[in-house]
Amino acid sequence: MSPVRPLTPDCHCCAGIDAATPRRLDNPPGLSAIAYRIGRHGDFLESIRARLSSADYPALAALTSREESDLTLALGDALASSLEVLGFYTERIANEHYLRTATERLSVLEMARLIGYQPAPGVAAGTHLAFTLQATPGAPVESITIPAGTRVQSVPGQDEEAQTFETVAAVPARADWNAIAVQTVTPWRPQFGDTALWLDGVVTRLQPGDALLIVGADRLSDPGSERWDVRVLAGVEPDNANGRTRVRWDHPLGSVFPAMSPASADVRVYAFRQHTALFGHNAPDPNLMSLRGSNIRQRIDTDITPWQWKNFAIDPDAIDLDTDNPEITAGSWIALVSNEPGLGSAALPGYTELYRASKVMHRSRNAFGISAKVTRITPDTTENLTASRYPLRRTLVLAHSERLATVDTPLAHPVHGDALTLGRRVEGLQPGQPLALSGQRQRIALTAQATGLSLVLDEGGSTALDAGDELFLLAPAARLIGTTPVALAAETFAALIGLAHVTLRLNLLDRDGRRGTLVAKGSDIRLAANAKDDASVTEIAYIDTAHDPISHDRDHSHLKLQAPLQHVYARATLRLNANVAPATHGETVEALLGSGDASTPDQRFVLNQAPLTFVGANTPSGRASTLEVRIDDVLWTEVPTLYRAAPDARRYETSQDDAGHTSVRFGDGREGTRLPSGESNVRVRYRKGLGAAGNLDAGKLTTLLSRPLGVSEATNPAPATGGEDAEPRDRARDNAPLTVLTLERAVSIEDYADFARTFAGIDKAHALWIPTGPARGVFLTIAGGDGAVVPESSDTFHHLSDALTRYGDPLVPLRLVNYADARFRCRLAVKVGDAFEPDTVLDAMAARLRAHFGFARRDFGQTVTVDEVAAEAQAVKGVVAVHVTRLHRLGQAPAVVPRLFASLPVASLTGLPPAAELLTLADDSLELEVLP
């Protein structure tokens, strides 16, 4: 007899006798969806069949059929199907009851309302509008007022809609504020060490080697004065575009020994048109002559050896020039140059003395064995007119002085920093007034001696530069002292150009629009003239409000700005427009909503136009409504809710549906007073229009819809920023709990970050407490919607700063900075399944990677790893295998870096920390290749 074999767990002989439902549910925290279904169709059907075989139900013992066509089993299958549907919807309902797992917008909004949170309705973009006024030549300068509500519309591009902006404040405007030039020239006065000056006109008949005299009233009044200079030109450079000529010389003005200083009063410039000699310079050598039978002995001094002509020396009272030049007249200047080696300069050796002709005679002279026509000059002084100083044979005479007209010296250095000197005196400007600046970036050219230079690109890599290449200056230059950069003022930078011992660091833009850094010697670069087709850049700057920011002299106005300029401008191209007004997206609507009825509680009206405009403000939410409601011409007040409002309070509350339509609800007599009865006595004034569509580029707003008297043009010099659509579901999910944490106050360091995240126009924020040092206080890094930069001049930036000061601790220093936008490159080799189309799979992979590593899904300081990239790519349907062949940050050499770090600010006792980094996939930097 064989032994009985024991039953094993895998023999399946007991299958179908145990219930498979309810399933055990396990939901750890942090899930994006919870499991709430106790079973699926198959599980329910198995449980029903197990009950049919259970000994607990003896009445079913006779039911032995297990055929699916059996009526009882068919009823069980139908019941399992019903339970499947019921379980599905039960799970969906359960998910919709939790903020993290809800997928329906209505669910998120209703749960947010339980804690008093209202989804943000969006906010209007803001910018500044610069107006151009019609100017009438000769007409007196009069100021007009550009009223609030002046409308300007954008010119839409393809697939765009026109957007309307309105000014929100009345501003004064003048025609002479249209295009104010900065100072481009400075009055010319010779200074010790000068080596150049500018002359009027381009036809000066000057060339290198000509001599120039710079003299003034000092020498005219005092013949013994040494305040004058004679220089030999090394270069003549006509400027045809501006009708002037630059002349330069090598030997600087002034002299230490002998002590000479440039002219100081009534300075005039003369060109010596004639180089000549003294009479007798070409006299024959008397030692070569025979004295026999000749009366020449009477003219030669034979008592000295070698022989010399009698009186062969300059006459201090009558200087005879070896020329007969009728252009030399009384009052003209001559200069005598001794031509002695070891004295003077290389271009004008020897001792030089200046004389003014008191009397001029044109005559013939016979002496020293020669005869010629001479010009006899009686000088205004006999200083140094000795034979030893000026021998007849050696002396050079510079004569025939012709006066040349000078012009003011052009300022060549660029414009940047926080101070501006205007090209003229401008009246009426006020502290805090916005200015629209427009001009071309300063060009930099490489000199002929510049070799081996390269531009280190911000995006990674470098590009070689050749002599003659021209680039644009993006930021103020810095001088490298060792490895430490020292920022340079514009004048200092211009003075260092050309010096070989100076090392400069420049942030430049090349002709292909790539940004980078160049380290070069001062002698490797020069300032270059701009081309007419160079692109202009614009910005808004504000006159400072402290320390007397506006001052005047006789010819110029000087302005101190609140912050340094964003660009480096070529001086000659920069223009300022002071006819600037703040403006926001939206246009004004006035309407009659209806009639009040005192017998009806909770009267409700819907605004005809949508969406209602909300503008940026320093409120806890960062926005304020533009709605004004007047009942019988009396202004009522909006409140968040009518709950517990006084029975006689003139209050109303508003709400918005998903379509953006706004409803206005009034009280019932117990909470808020009822509307008084009247015919069409409910009147509203509001603005319509908001959202991200208002975030327009600079120069897009150009169409005047309302034209104040005298205004001819308008534009927005700076982009419109801060526009935000109504809060989407996912952001409401994240922001709703934050309002409970902060309760509209910023106390802890986390509160500052949470407060900023829920503020209109701010998407992400990171806060750091710095207890001591120069950066003491709250250091807050912010990012705008979709990663946009929040300009320091924007309303959003100022409103957030004001709100945190108002609702936080006003005694705690606060510093706001924009985040550091870090990018990385990625390359993957992909094996695609044989049944799938490779292009479709690669497109899906690219979309998944860009979404996962895009701004919306990343946070400050979040790292990127090879494993994360591979996992996201592998999750795409149709992918068999993935190999990451390149992963590195922009600016790094191509490689596979296992983990890319994004830095967060760290408190420092010595300086400001860098802003928080947010690491995302760079645009057009994803490379996908298919493996065979």
Automatic annotation (TrEMBL):
Highest taxon in the source lineage: Bacteria
Baseplate protein J-like barrel domain ranges (all copies): 676-723
Record InterPro entries: Barrel_Baseplate_J-like (IPR006949), CHP02243 (IPR011749)
Source organism per UniProt: Halomonas heilongjiangensis
Protein name: Putative baseplate assembly protein
Pfam families (UniProt xref): Baseplate_J (PF04865)
Chain positions covered by the region annotation Disordered: 653-677, 709-731
